[in-house]
Design brief:
The protein has 347 residues and is an alpha/beta fold. The chain has two domains: 2-105, Nucleotidyltransferase, domain 5 (2-Layer Sandwich); 138-334, Nucleotidyltransferase, domain 5, CATH 3.30.420.40. It contains 13 helices and 13 strands. The protein has helices spanning 33-37, 65-77, 79-95, 115-118, 124-127, 138-152, 203-210, 215-224, 227-232, 238-242, 251-271, 284-297, 334-346; strands at 2-7, 10-16, 21-26, 45-49, 60-62, 101-105, 158-163, 169-174, 177-181, 276-281, 305-311, 315-319, 326-331. It has a seven-stranded mixed β-sheet, sandwiched between helices. A six-stranded mixed β-sheet has the order 3-2-1-4-6-5, with helices on both faces. It is globular.
Length: 347
């Protein structure tokens, strides 16, 4: 299986089979048949779509020429999120028509959010059915749900899933079904991120437009030139925060912690408390001190932390068995999780 995912204007890819995995990166402006020429004949091709609107409502979707128009509609609405994937998928469909193509959709998990979490307080006559909250990082949250199901043999009644990344995201699940999430119309709503502004007063947008900025310029400011990096005046990533490279008194760090804690509080409130809190990170040893500090801030929940975490295979338990809130940390294996989702869908 060959999987493509766009990150920061780069296409990352990984080829996986029973014997090996090979990965790399290419510029999206130069899709190359040479990339696929080194791959065994007729692999499955899969692409990660950041935002599926109402066009892609399943986590895994068979992609063919008939569905390409749906994909192109997604690209028109959210070009900075989707257009790279649209162009790459179109190229591969045109040049490799005999291969099986699948689209993995990041927003599909949240397609059926309850109305209390789905809609904005905007007039329906103006917004129609398109302007709504779609959520984000659904593939990561689904992998988290699957992990907990395998661990407990059931879905917890109330679970808070926290994806700690450069664009952090939190979702609340009731018996495995999403009921709230920090991401909204796009993934830039919610928790302040490394480059995204997070939640803001909508009139700020109007003020910027009134100052003469074009819509594209405002979009660029909000999605690429804001966030913690803008406040710090230098490029920073979530790993800088997790490694403690920002001092505890640093106002940029404090803003992130406050935004994260507020989002956790909202996620817990949406469930009237939680049975399980599951953090997903790229590297547990790097993230564990930061998560431990967050747990200290949440001690009012009655969390009974272990002095020494129980360390499993990319999965750590942080609380006693009798703790009212069980807290776990899982280390994501992104490519393996994507491959598993596709295989489960087509098996």
């Amino acid at each position: 299986m060959l999987i493509f995912e766009a990150k920061e204007q780069i296409i990352n890819w990984e080829y996986r089979d029973d014997q090996k995995s090979v990965s790399g990166s290419v510029l999206p402006a130069s899709p190359s048949r040479e990339l696929l020429a080194c791959i065994p004949e007729n692999p499955i091709l899969a692409y990660v779509l950041p935002h599926g609107m109402d066009r892609f409502t399943a986590a895994v979707n068979r992609l063919d020429a008939n569905r390409l128009r749906d994909l192109e509609d997604c690209g028109k609405l959210l070009p900075e999120e989707n257009q790279i994937v649209v162009e790459w998928a179109r190229f591969c469909l045109d040049n490799f028509p005999k291969h099986e193509h699948y689209m993995l959709c990041e927003t599909a998990l949240f397609h059926d959010l309850p109305s209390s979490a789905r809609f904005y307080a905007l007039p329906h006559t103006t917004t129609g059915n398109i302007i709504r909250r779609y959520g984000s990082d659904g593939l990561c949250h689904q992998a988290a749900l699957d992990h907990i199901l395998g661990l407990m043999g059931r879905q917890p009644a109330r679970l808070v899933s926290i994806h700690l990344s450069d664009r952090p995201n939190i979702a609340s699940f009731y018996h495995g079904h999403p009921v709230e999430t920090t991401a909204g119309f796009t993934s830039f709503e919610g928790i302040v991120s490394m480059h995204g502004i997070g939640d803001i007063d909508a009139t700020i947008t109007l003020d910027l437009l009134k100052k003469g900025l074009a819509t594209a310029e405002v979009r660029d400011i909000f999605t690429k030139k804001s966030g913690l990096s803008a406040l710090k005046g230098q490029e920073i990533h979530i790993t800088d925060l997790l490694r403690g490279q920002l001092a505890p008194t640093d106002p940029v760090r404090n803003l992130f912690v406050a935004s994260l804690l507020k989002a956790i509080g909202a996620a817990l409130a949406a469930l009237n408390g939680a049975e399980v809190m599951l953090w997903t990170v790229e590297n547990i040893p790097i993230a564990i001190d930061f998560i431990g500090n967050m747990m200290k801030r949440l001690q009012f929940l009655g969390i009974q932390s272990l002095t020494v975490p129980l360390k499993g295979d990319h999965f750590w338990e942080l609380t006693h068995k009798n703790s009212p809130l069980q807290v776990y940390v899982r280390q994501s294996n992104r490519w393996q999780e994507l491959e598993t989702l596709v295989k489960k869908s087509i098996s």
